[in-house]
Amino acid sequence: MKVVILGCGRSGASLALQLASMDHSVTVIDRNPESLRRLGKTFPCRIVLGNGLDLDTLAKAEVNESDAFFAMTRGDNTNIMAAQIVKRNFGVERVAVKVADPLRAEAYRKLGLFTINAAALLAGMCRDWFLGAEFKPIDAYNVDVAEVER
Questions:
Q1: End-to-end CA distance of the chain
Q2: What is the pLDDT of residues 16-33, one digit of tens each?
Q3: How many domains is the chain partitioned into structurally?
């Protein structure tokens, strides 16, 4: 399958390398050439340098031909905007959004986007490990848990 990943931070680079090792065609978009070092010296991915909110950059990454798009930058706003652009302008059906803020994650889910909130996922898996429970499907962890008021 052909995938495009926006963001070559730890999560984006790890996903790119995992998918490429499974013989998927991977394109990584990032504006910082230094971030690409996370892919190693002989990275098995296509690279597009540029802003993932820019239509020309997304077109250069051939997002319109992709089977999936992953918005994996550290910016929640950038991720949601890129996801919406890719869905609406390029017609990509499978779009995943990395979201740090649990409240935003819930709002994005309501917009029909598949969101991953690392804090909720990690907390749920640590809880189950501690309790000796079997791990659950991702949707069981990827839910909004009310935060304690400060």
A1: 45
A2: 999 999 999 999 999 999
A3: 2
